[in-house]
Amino acid sequence: MSLKIIVKKEGKPGKFDRVNKQKSMNMRKMLLASSLIIMGLCNAQKKQEGLKGTWFATAQFGYQSTNDGSENGKSSSTTILPLAGYFVGPSTAVGIAVGNIGVKSTNQFADNVTLKTNLLVVEPLARKYWNIHGGLFFFGQLAAPIISGKTKVTANGQAVPDSDIKVNQFGLALSGGLDYVMSKHFTVEFSYNLANLSYTTIKNYPGTTKDIKTTDFSLAHVATVTPDYNQAVLGPNGNAISTLSFGFKFLF
């Protein structure tokens, strides 16, 4: 009895093998092309959405000191105004600023008279951004500031009874600025007040029996309350909120 060992030699791939190999290569090419298309669409969509869905936060901190030229007349103010916002579109944002302005004035209103003012500021706003080049953007902002508070009067170190001056102001403020993107989560911005419209009511102002109501419109300037009150509390050329603002903005 004999045992035969049969060894099968591999020859050239048959037609069926070549067809399968070609189909496999075509499939890989299709998958690669599909991946590239999907990535391109995702990038385009991401670019189109811009900053939509992004939160941002910044704050205005300020200190102002003025002197009326006399030996004792002076005024100082401190501003703390945090701001938070949200991009509702690729280049459109809404936000709100809530803060406080504290002012101390000595001998501005009268000799040996000190005025201490505490103002609450609430400022809803909307912004629109336009790209200039690279990371540099121009933005326009429309805000509706609401300022409310009172001034306490002290004479010769003693509080004057029933002398609190109450102030309420609301209006519209238009400003423009530049915003430079330093990194994904950090920008530097500069803005300037362009126009301001305000309506103010002052109650219990010394020397008056009725409320003082003032409408003020100004260009490239922050609206004042009334000239006398503004000078008495904030000093000559003093303003509650600075016309010029510079700060840092955080994106998250």
UniProtKB/TrEMBL annotation:
The residues covered by the Outer membrane protein beta-barrel domain are 35-219
The cross-references to InterPro entries, in alphabetical order and at most eight, read:
Autotransporte_beta_dom_sf, Beta-barrel_OMP, OMP/PagP_B-barrel
Keyword annotations for this protein, in alphabetical order, are: Signal
Keyword set includes Signal: yes
Name of this protein: Outer membrane protein beta-barrel domain-containing protein
Species name: Chryseobacterium taeanense
